[in-house]
Design a protein that fits this description.
Blueprint: E1 5-6, H1 16-22, H2 32-49, E2 54-59, H3 62-73, E3 79-84, H4 87-98, E4 102-107, H5 116-125, E5 131-135, E6 137-138, E7 143-144, H6 147-156, E8 161-164, H7 176-179, E9 183-187, E10 198-203, H8 205-213, H9 225-234, H10 247-263, H11 265-286, E11 289-290, E12 301-305, H12 312-323, E13 325-326, E14 328-329, E15 338-342, H13 345-348, H14 351-373
Parallel strand pairs: 1-13, 3-4, 3-5, 5-8, 8-9
Antiparallel strand pairs: 2-10, 6-7, 9-10, 11-12, 12-15, 14-15
This protein binds pyridoxal-5'-phosphate.
Pyridoxal-5'-phosphate (PLP) binds next to helix 3.
Length: 374
């Protein structure tokens, strides 16, 4: 049987063209021609992040970018406000704690957004905090946190804002400079539609100033942004990063970036929104409950409450074996209760992907209803 089509919240299926580029001969990561290619890739990413600030491509998954951002901005004993409304907020908590950062969590119930008001209350109650960190699109629940409004708060209180944009940048409206975001992170295998392996991290001039003035400079070497900037300047002409760049991944990423920029970022965002609407409408007509309300629902991933009497593994197994589509279960405590669908990237948003998925869920619902009658 064919491999299942991926409709999980990353990694996403990539186009034939992207895949083909990945399979060509390996090229070296240095020299003038390659540096031009690399710099051009960085320039494309800056357009998608909507930033004129610095941006680096790191070899590593999205978590490497998040780890580098936290490590570079904050150190042992520093206090920071962190929005937590799901698994990836908790993941940032783990990362920050690993560096000895003291966190003031601003929590919201699963399925609800972290509000700017609550962030501001936490900032006002803790005048010594050094940063605010938040996940833009909480992939575990399909909730979008109001980064623009949170950015207004951090601007007002003159605090740096770090954002996990792993399932938002390239799929949901994101405006790094307009919203006053200081560190923004994404990864290759989600909205950007490339294979896993690369993290992208953008850094504002304010974030650089903070890093330069830290009493205890960032730890380590690989996940230290000051080191990346240093090598970028010193090895500008040779290779503007401290290590061997994953050239094949970059070349594949370029194919998908070109298609996003060719389509136009606003159109890309609209395409994701339309896909989410189509999927959510379909789920409603099947009679299942969506985790996130329309007002803050994600365009890139949807979490659904499954039937109370069926563990989601059953539905997932059925869709894979009978319909050739792979979706994901819930995360953490909702593992067996929710299922999650990723509708992002170049293929995941296509109606010809979403229709068969809805048909499959409908078929499962019909089978379950029959079972009830027997
Ligand atoms: C997938 C994801 C990550 C982790 O990215 P990795 O590439 O797996 O390290 C972090 N944050 C969010 C919101 C994600 O969806």
């Amino acid at each position: 049987m064919d491999r299942p089509k991926l409709m999980i919240p990353g990694p996403v299926d990539v186009t034939e063209e992207t895949l083909a580029r990945m399979g060509q001969n390996v090229v070296p990561h240095f020299g003038a021609a390659w540096v031009e290619t690399y710099n051009d890739t960085v320039a494309s990413l800056k357009r998608i992040f909507r930033t004129g600030e610095d941006l680096f491509i790191m070899v590593g998954s999205g978590s490497a970018g998040l780890d580098a951002g936290v490590n570079s901005l904050l150190g042992k004993g520093d206090r920071a406000v962190l929005g937590i409304n799901g698994f990836f907020g908790e993941r940032l908590e783990e990362i920050a704690r690993s560096y000895g950062v003291e966190l003031i969590p601003v929590r919201a119930e699963l399925g609800m957004p972290v509000t700017a008001e609550k962030v501001e209350q936490a900032v006002l109650a803790n005048p010594d905090v050094k940063a605010v960190i938040v996940v833009h699109n909480e992939t575990s629940t399909g909730v979008v946190n109001p980064v623009e409004a949170i950015g207004n708060v951090t601007r007002k209180h003159n605090l740096p804002l770090m954002v996990d944009g792993v399932t938002s940048i390239g799929g949901i409206e994101f405006d790094m400079d307009g919203w006053g975001v200081d560190i923004a992170v994404t990864a290759s295998q989600k909205c950007l539609g490339a294979p896993p392996g690369l993290a992208m991290i953008a850094v504002s001039s304010r974030a650089w100033r903070i890093m330069e003035q830290r009493e205890n400079p960032p730890w380590g070497w690989y996940l230290n942004l000051l080191n990346w900037r240093d090598y970028r300047e010193r090895w500008k002409e040779w290779h503007p990063y401290p290590m061997t760049m994953a050239t094949s991944n970059i070349l594949a990423l370029r194919v998908s970036l070109a298609s996003i920029l060719g389509e136009g970022i606003d159109n890309t965002i609209r395409r994701h929104r339309a896909a989410a609407k189509m999927f959510r409408d379909g789920i409603r007509s099947i009679g299942l409950k969506l985790v996130a309300d329309d007002g803050f629902a994600s365009s890139t991933v949807t979490a659904v409450e499954s039937w109370a009497d069926v563990p989601t593994e059953k539905l997932i197994g059925f869709l894979e074996s009978e319909h050739g589509i792979r979706i994901a279960n819930g995360i953490g405590t909702m593992k067996d209760r929710w299922f999650r669908v990723g509708h992002m990237g170049p293929l995941g948003t296509l109606p010809e992907r979403i229709e068969p998925l809805l048909k499959g869920i409908e078929a499962f619902a019909a089978r379950r209803a029959e079972g009830e009658q027997n």
